[in-house]
Structures are given as structure tokens and as C-alpha cells.
Structure to design on (96 residues):
């Protein structure tokens, strides 16, 4: 293996080149974090639309009073559920 800045030495034929470090490039260049996340979201939607049994995640951001948050945490701990499981269960009980 030669130094990357060495322009005079030839590569030996049939010598395997070592893999590059890091995340593999797509379309010939590295993707930014925003591009990777956008691609991840589109792949999630694609999988969910092919398989209707798979959940399609959707972000939900809310602000609640600190005392209500403590009440939710205590309820979840008492029932052995996560906050998302508890909120999903509550929302499913709402009429359509």
C-alpha cells in the first residue's frame, strides 16, 4: 500500500485495496445528516406502504404541565408501560 500523496509509485495489480473508513457514500459523495434522515424517513414510509401491518411512525411534540407529566410517569411506572404505549392506548380509545 502506498501513501495517498505518492504520485510516483504504481499500484501492484491484483492487490486488494483497503475499505474506506466511515459511512459509505451514495451517489458518489457523502450525504449530510439531513439527507440521511430524509432518506431514512422515505424508506420507512415505503416499507409501511408495502406492508400495511407495519407501523408508520409520526412525530408528536406537545407541552404539558409539569404536574401532569409527573402523573403520567407515575401511571406508566405503576402499569409497566412506556409513555408512548400509554398515550397510544389512550388515543385508541377516542371515538373516530
Amino acid at each position: 500500500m502506498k501513501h495517498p500523496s505518492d504520485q510516483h509509485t504504481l499500484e501492484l495489480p491484483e492487490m486488494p485495496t483497503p475499505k474506506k473508513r466511515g459511512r459509505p457514500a451514495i451517489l458518489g459523495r457523502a450525504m449530510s445528516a439531513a439527507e440521511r434522515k430524509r432518506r431514512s424517513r422515505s424508506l420507512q414510509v415505503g416499507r409501511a406502504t408495502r406492508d400495511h401491518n407495519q407501523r408508520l411512525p409520526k412525530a408528536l411534540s406537545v407541552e404539558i404541565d409539569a404536574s401532569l407529566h409527573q402523573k403520567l410517569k407515575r401511571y406508566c411506572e405503576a402499569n409497566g408501560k412506556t409513555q408512548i404505549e400509554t398515550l397510544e392506548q389512550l388515543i385508541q380509545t377516542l371515538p373516530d
